[in-house]
Amino acid sequence: MTHDDEATTVRRIWGGLGLPGIIDVHTHFMPKSVMDKVWNYFDSAGPMVGRSWTITYRTDEAARLEALREFGVRRFTSLVYPHKPQMAEWLNQWSAEFARETPDCLATATFYPEPGAADYVASAIRSGTRVFKAHIQVGDYDPNDPLLDEVWGVIEDSGIPVVIHCGSGPQPGRFTGPEPIRRLLRRHPRLTLIIAHMGMPEYRDFLDICLDSVAVHLDTTMAFTAFVDELMPFPAGEQARVRAAGDRIVFGSDFPNIPYGYLEALTAITAVPGIDDAWLRGVLHDNAAHLFGVALPSG
Predict the structure, then answer these.
(1) Which segments of the protein form a coiled coil according to its record (predicted)?
(2) Which of 32, 80, 123, 165 has the smallest set of CB atoms within 10 Å of its CB?
């Protein structure tokens, strides 16, 4: 399938639901030097990936932006994440400039457990950050690290969502899994967390957390796709709870770092058993529009 054909089919799906487009909460734009290192890591099937993984949309930044717009993505993110100290603030500066130049990108920031983190997080909030990214696996840190106490407090008070990769897929880390998140939420119950990848592979536990918490969401990134179902399939018998959590599930794709086309990321969601058009409208657009204050088109 050509890109034009793929874009036409994607637009036909959301258009048929009466939506003005898609909001994708899980996309990656990074400084070129960082993105190149990420892609090289996937190419090598590094230990945090654990299998062959081809980057489908390995193009320059301008082409990637144009692809999302051709798919009809109204808003997206530039999820960045550090793997060492003294990296997050620099990434935040890059992301802020990227958002200023890219009005359809939700201004994104990140953090790391280090002295001064609360200061640069507060600065990012003052500068207009609309979403944070935390990657427990890559960062290899405990979300309950005392160096993050003030960070979580500042973010909780702001109400800004945090897309957090905390499930143990594709490979477990020292601090991944549901228990560290349960401990975090006991201390900061108003945190607006967006659990990446539906919490893969601890889907049931993270559904529990979502349904039991005040403001926890799940993003669909890579869930339900054939690529993931080979090793970490979504558990059968959870359809009713997936429907029940429908107002707090948002669409994510992991673009451009996916080993299949954007259309497959979308059709995997539309094929979830037991869902209806109202559920799809919420997941693909309306839930995130509400969460991020994205206005619906008039008329």
Answers:
(1) none
(2) 32
